[in-house]
Design a protein that fits this description.
Length: about 400
């Protein structure tokens, strides 16, 4: 399973260091957060530093309906740089196949001029149901992507965007029918860029839900079985599990809105906020805990320490309190996710699913030991993800008939 950086605001040297440490296999750039001249420089710099790295550009077309909304946070997408394909649109306009062809052509043509290794075709978000007009529009974007791209005579692979809200994947029969349809296309894309949307980036239970986890794994499994390469955006700690299901790559970045996909990222701001508390991603807990919780627990329960190079960023000196440099937290996350993916290495599907199940069970037992010592954890640090992961694996095996 490859690991990509999910690019966003305040990049600094984070991605550069991720490549330098051998943690990243690619990067997915966000036009919202970078001007076109700067983007071109970054793409060239990544190619020079890591020639084999995959360089992708997410057109972020799924935010198109917010173009024209007062106070929407669309950043550079509203500038002339990206105006060729990012113009205000209404849903009714996209109900016409001829309009979808035009939208695809402009977005694909724009990307063909970039130094990327693959092309991500635009699409809208399916917000509520896979049996809806938005679903029909989405399928038309997917169905027409390869034929519109072929006219450009570009040999790079094209990935169709599949952006679905977590609510829309809850109906299992609708999900199976939808995935069956897009795997039986006469002229299919080379792969898919899969996004599962939460209501907002802080809605932990939206993604850590057994049905959502099972559905996301099922999407990866079915597409992979049918020969498609699957790149998962904003997949964070679920990346290794999606790899087990058949996914080719996952991605995460440094802010919460680069770990969980949500259109809330583009919506009008609800007000300012403070910088988030820095955290440590523990493989044993399958979760992030605050740096001060890590400082306390690493002495009581050494098993929570990953024993990887990134641990050095969390100084055990009591005067420091295990707080890492703010621009290095994501480096530790990338390292941990990469290591977990490597740990789920069995080629036999039954064996690797058991590895996943065992890892979740051990994480639950470790949490029980922490609780038995009377240690109270921050809400995001607790064990609320354990049961959804456990149940999600079981549901996935049923859905995939494994």
């Amino acid at each position: 399973m490859k690991l990509f950086a999910q690019h966003g605001a305040s990049e600094g040297e984070k991605i550069t260091e991720g490549f330098a440490r051998g943690l990243l296999d690619g990067v997915i750039y966000s036009p919202r957060d970078v001007s076109l001249p700067a983007l071109k420089e970054k793409l060239s710099a990544v190619e020079a530093a890591s020639p084999t790295a995959e360089r992708l550009f997410d057109p972020q077309y799924y935010a198109i309906f917010l173009n024209g909304t007062e106070e929407a946070r669309l950043g550079w997408l509203l500038e002339e740089d990206y105006a060729s394909y990012f113009q205000p649109r209404r849903r009714s306009q996209l109900e016409r196949e001829s309009q979808i062809e035009k939208e695809l052509t402009t977005a694909l043509t724009f990307q063909s001029g970039l130094n990327v290794t693959g092309i991500i075709a635009p699409n809208i978000l399916i917000p509520n149901s896979l049996n809806s007009i938005e679903s029909v529009i989405s399928k038309n974007f997917i169905r027409l992507a390869k034929s519109q791209y072929a006219a450009l005579n570009d040999k790079r692979p094209v990935y169709a965007t599949l952006a679905i809200s977590r609510n829309a994947v809850l109906d299992k029969q609708e999900l199976v029918d939808f995935i069956n349809e897009i795997t039986l296309l006469d002229d299919p894309p080379d792969g898919f860029y899969v996004l599962i949307s939460a209501r907002n980036t802080e809605a932990r239970s939206d993604i850590y839900n057994a049905d959502v986890i099972a559905a996301w794994m099922f999407i990866n499994h079915t597409l992979a079985v049918n020969g498609f390469k699957v790149v998962n955006g904003y997949s964070d700690i679920l990346t290794p599990f999606l790899g087990v299901a058949g996914g080719s790559a996952g991605a995460l970045g440094w802010w919460s809105n680069l770990k969980v996909f949500s259109l809330d990222r583009f919506a009008p701001s609800a007000g300012g906020g403070r910088l988030p508390i820095q955290r440590y991603l523990s493989l044993a807990l399958l979760n992030r805990i605050t740096f001060f919780e890590f400082n306390q627990l690493r002495k009581l329960f050494p098993a929570i320490v990953n024993k990887l190079a990134g641990d050095a960023l969390y100084d055990p000196d009591p005067s420091v309190g295990s707080e890492p440099p703010r621009n290095k937290e994501v480096v530790q996350s990338w390292e941990a996710v990469k290591a977990l993916s490597a740990g789920f290495a069995a080629t036999d599907k039954t064996k690797v699913l058991k590895q996943c199940s065992d890892a979740i069970k051990q994480a639950g037992l470790l949490y029980e030991m922490v609780q038995a010592r009377g240690v109270r954890l921050d809400q995001k640090s607790n064990d609320e993800h354990i049961q959804p992961l456990t149940d999600g694996l079981v549901l996935f095996k049923k859905l995939a008939e494994l």
